Amino acid sequence: MGYFLILRPLNCLITAASVMVGAWIGLPKYLDARLLLAMIAGFLACGFGNVVNDLFDIDIDAVSAPQRPLPTGKVKRNWVVVEAIGCALVSLILAAIIDGKALALTAFALILLLSYAGLLKKYWLANIVVALLAGFSFLLGGIVRDNIAALFPFALSVLVHMPREIIKDLIDEPGDRQRGIITCAVKLGSQKARNIAAVYLGILCLILPAPFMLRILGWRYVLLIMLAAIPLILYLIIRIVLRPAIPDLRSLSRLLKLAMAIGLIAMII
């Protein structure tokens, strides 16, 4: 069970669902072999990133997250390395079966995931990498169906994940300063980081109606985002700027996840 949990299967399932959204947005919704292969490739690529991240963070997790599979000893490090390599290889094979563009995107994502875990997470550029990786799943779905409309969920995903990563930086700021990790909050200061997060969310509100205005998505999409997603995001903007305490920041991060879920649902209903 530990070898399955270390993949963080919920995150992997969200990645697979994002691949599906990228393929379906604005087009007829059906599941064929190519899309299923892409969803499995996305699931495994995400699993690779999570496993590699745990391998590099094993000493940190032993203190801050001792319940994780590696610190508890429920899994063996050597076998976890084999698991990571297996996830990467199978995801590449599945992507290659789809086509060359899918293979190139998957390979690039795996390289970024490894670079993030081993080096980039110590610097503020890590936020950009995480945001791009989250959006790549939509692009993979777009490649499967040759669907240029996948650029919209890609852009929206980047604009959601950038402020979410900044919120996580704010939560971890004291510990990051001690460990010499240069995040956005450490580099620019707490208030500037909050303002940047609010700006990203403001831009997100402005472009959320774009798929409806360009007639890619219909009334059900625009009604859901106008009645649920945008009011929630505006609330988040106000709360972020008002300098909430760390426990409140954690609740804001969860609310941002809810906004992401609303947006995904709106794109496929």
The total of beta strands comes to 0
Distance between the termini: 34 Å
Order of helices and strands: HHHHHHHHHHHHHH
Oligomer: single chain
Assign the structural class, choosing from mainly alpha, mainly beta, alpha/beta, alpha+beta, or little secondary structure. Answer: mainly alpha
Q: What is the 3D shape?
A: globular
- Count of helix runs: 14
Radius of gyration: 19 Å
Sheet of most strands: none
Stretches where pLDDT is under 50 for at least 5 consecutive residues are none
Average of pLDDT: 88
How helix-rich are the residues, as a percent range? Answer: over 70%
- Portion in strands: under 5%
Could you characterize the architecture of this molecule?
The chain has about 270 residues and is an all-alpha fold. It is about 80% helix and about 0% strand. It has helices at about 1-5, 10-25, 35-55, 60-65, 70, 75-100, 100-120, 125-145, 150-180, 185-190, 190-205, 210-215, 220-240, 245-269. It starts with a helix and ends with a helix. The mean pLDDT is about 90.
Which terms would index this structure?
single chain; 269 residues; mainly alpha; 14 helices; 81% helix; 0% strand; globular
List the SSEs and their pairings:
Layout: H1 2-5, H2 9-24, H3 33-56, H4 58-64, H5 69-72, H6 77-98, H7 100-118, H8 126-145, H9 151-179, H10 184-188, H11 190-207, H12 210-213, H13 219-241, H14 246-268
Brief synopsis:
The protein has helices spanning 2-5, 9-24, 33-56, 58-64, 69-72, 77-98, 100-118, 126-145, 151-179, 184-188, 190-207, 210-213, 219-241, 246-268.
